[in-house]
Amino acid sequence: MLEIKNLHARVADTETEILRGLDLTVQDGEIAAIMGPNGSGKSTLSYIIAGRQDYEVTAGDILYNGESILEMDAAERAASGVFLAFQYPLEIPGVATMTFLKTALNSQRKARGEAELTTPDFLRRVKSSAADLKIEMEMLKRPLNVGFSGGEKKRAEILQMALLEPKLCVLDETDSGLDIDALKIVADGVNALRSTDRSFLVITHYQRLLDYIVPDTVHVLYKGRIIRSGTKDLALQLENEGYAQIIGEAA
Ligand SMILES: Nc1ncnc2c1ncn2[C@@H]1O[C@H](COP(=O)(O)OP(=O)(O)OP(=O)(O)O)[C@@H](O)[C@H]1O
Ligand SMILES: [Mg+2]
């Protein structure tokens, strides 16, 4: 599904490297958790996979289903099934959430060669997915993310993911700001999408999320590189010991 090889990247208008030789492979159907201290490059990695313009890849490659995506812009990547749930979802004043979802879903369907949904079909799907995520339909009439609480924004991201049915889902700290019930609801939403032809990159600081979304692999990102990979037990170890030892061993 995803193969990242020796990736080096920096913010476009600076010299500072943020990713420094990152290697990561995620198989079809795999849930890979990414953990790591603040500032280690997790969100940067998610932006670069999604194709955000402000970053520049200076070396290495990102292969998605065997083909490099570095030359594809963000819209092309999204059309091919790459999805990013942002750590800080963007507010879009003036665009009703419902309208945004319909446009996004229909352009995704178009890219897959499927027909546009009629309004009643679209509404049926949104209602069903929103109900699963305990999102009130009233909220979806409001401009996207504007005035949404932290947890509501995160749920709206997962709603978008559920509707778009992407193949590679990158979730950047989707658990942060969620109350205990919402954490379970969101995790159930992710688990419902688990499938042999869909992969997840779950970025999180907390082992707790991984009790609900059980990962196949856990990777530690530090200073722009993966310094340790393991099973879900690695997350438990980090919870107990912190990062110091693993960082020390990698140095
Ligand atoms: N536009 C930018 N200009 C300068 N530095 C940047 C920029 N974007 C990111 N960085 C720096 O790159 C490093 C990695 O940032 P990133 O947001 O990827 O970290 P993170 O691992 O997601 O951290 P957190 O756990 O706090 O979310 C940080 O030191 C950050 O300050
Ligand atoms: Mg981050």
Characterize the structure shown.
It is a single chain. This protein has one domain (2-250): 3-Layer(aba) Sandwich (Rossmann fold), CATH 3.40.50. It is of the alpha/beta class. Helix 6 (180-193) links the parallel strand 9 (168-172) and strand 10 (199-203). The strands form three sheets. It has a six-stranded mixed beta sheet with strand order 6-9-10-3-11-12, with helices on both faces. Strands 2-1-4-5 form a four-stranded antiparallel beta sheet. The model has no long low-confidence stretch (mean pLDDT 94). It has helices at 42-50, 74-79, 97-111, 119-132, 150-164, 180-193, 207-212, 232-241, 244-250, and strands spanning 2-11, 17-26, 31-35, 55-64, 67-68, 82-85, 92-96, 143-144, 168-172, 199-203, 217-222, 225-230. It is globular. The protein contains nine helices and twelve strands. Bound molecules: adenosine-5'-triphosphate and magnesium ion. Residues 42-43, 87, 172 line the site of magnesium ion (MG).
The oligomerization state is single chain
**Mean pLDDT rating:** 94
CATH architecture: 3-Layer(aba) Sandwich
Q: List the strand order in the largest sheet.
A: 6-9-10-3-11-12
Radius of gyration: 18 Å
Total domains, how many? Answer: 1
**CATH class bucket:** Alpha Beta
Order of helices and strands: EEEHEEHEEHHEHEHEHEEHH
Q: How would you sum up the major sheet?
A: 6 strands, mixed
The CATH topology is Rossmann fold
Strand fraction equals 25-35%
Determine the CATH superfamily.
P-loop containing nucleotide triphosphate hydrolases
Q: Write out the distinct hetero groups bound to the structure.
A: adenosine-5'-triphosphate, magnesium ion
| Computed structural class | alpha/beta
Treating each run of at least 4 consecutive H or I residues as one helix, how many helices? 9
Distance between the first and last residues' Cα: 30 Å
